[in-house]
Target: Mercuric reductase
Amino acid sequence: MSNKIINLNINGMTCSGCSSHIEKDLNSKDGIVNSTVNHETGKGEFVYDTNKLSNQDVINAVNNVGNYSVIEDIEKENCCVTNAKDYDGKNKFDLIVIGGGSAAFSAAIKAESIGLTTLMVNDGLDFGGTCVNVGCVPSKNLIRAAETAYHATHSNFKGIKPKGVEIDFTQIIKDKKTLVSTLQQHKYMDVVSDFKNLTMLKGWAEFVDNKTIFVDGKNIYTATNIIIATGATTNIPNIEGLNKVGYLTNVSLFDLEEKPKSLTIMGAGYIGLEIAMAYNRLGVKVRIIEFTDRPLRSQTNDITDVLEAQMKSEGIEILPNFRAIKFEKDSDKTIIHCKCPDGSITQIIEEGHIVVATGTKPNTSKLGLINIDLKLTDKGHILVNEKMETNISNIYAAGDVANTPPFVYTAAKEGSTAVNNAFSLAKNSVDYTSLPWVVFTDPQIAGAGMDEVEAEKAGLPFEVSKLDLVLVPRALAAQDTRGFIKLIRNTETDKLIGARVIATEGGELIQQLSMAIKFGITVKDLADSFYPYLTLGEGIKLAAITFGKDVSKLSCCAS
Model:
């Protein structure tokens, strides 16, 4: 195979939907290896197989898509890449890692420790990936800032009357940017700065075959094994007019230094909810449009009821069972046409910004996966087993691009596991049975293992204990009894198989419960253990006791 690049100036594109339309049509044409089109610059770059197509064939193909037309073509001087067997071999590595986030860095660290020559190829987000640049770090920093503002104006104690707060929104965002930059340098770039066997390259990687990639369509690299760790990005719904009115995602929202007048957030998953609470507490009017019946629908009603009540009490407008069907601009306002729960159509006016938080999609497009017949799930994730192996023996996947839980800490585990399994006969597996997770709303929502719905679906014999925080001395002392602790046990073994917590700082409890699940600790063990009095953790003991006793009838510290 001999590939060639042609750059074309394309007339008629007005939005990202146009560029996506051209890319989709061209990529489906036999002989087109890859298409990259930018509606803002009006340019398209196309890699094609010269054995199947000519320059003019590519131009004609673009001209045949919709109302678009090629007005000029510009070929790169160094346009051709050859088959790997014709290459001189100077760019051969033991391992190629495609991506630059947590999974990729974990893989690189593991590879360096066992002396592998490694190439890391990254494009899109800067090295460090979603978590440090646009995800965990900035969002939790803003959430903490917002909590500080909230507690300066709200008190759980009648005898304490807060006098208010002055919010310098621009300074908050600048401080967030400084934190992101510092951690990106210290926790990623500095960590690998003295690696002798690692080469880091900024560019777009595409597969030629299962051991070969070319980067930015011109330089070719080969490796014994390859790990795909390209992460995920916001899934933008296909709604009429959305691309034309302008919208934000967490990537662009977190960098706005001018406080938004208001926000309409599309989606009530954990990303949308965390954004809503943070920005509302920082003085931004917030509305959430959710097409299902309630926020965070992945959790049971009792959890979402507590959270929804808190959000509404803070002035956040939540519109469940509303589906946006059209967006249009009217001067500096955005009109959102929504289908209401009763089937009627209404118009919602947003004077600030639209924020899209409708889930994520894996970054698997434009990688040339068609050239290696890599298997994907129905949602586009790379299909891996518990060893991070794909259907191709020397290709592995890790992190959000794979069909695994989408957390930065699971990505890190998966990256190192993939390297171990690619180069060692002793294979390791990743077990998510006791995986802990946290949603950083207020109150926080945390979980590990199964909830009652999942236990029933699995056909397990189970029993549920649910302890309202009004029965936990720590919560009473703090005058904050929002939420509960819920434990799920296997009735045949008495072992803990799941837990859910909704409480202030509830995330600090979940690791203990995760360890209990992992190591087969029984509910009796939890109930019989010592817990410091007037800690939230004591609620675990009380919840365990609740399986057999009414704890409201026990004295303090009683068993």
Remarks:
- Residues 73-89 have pLDDT under 50 and may be disordered.
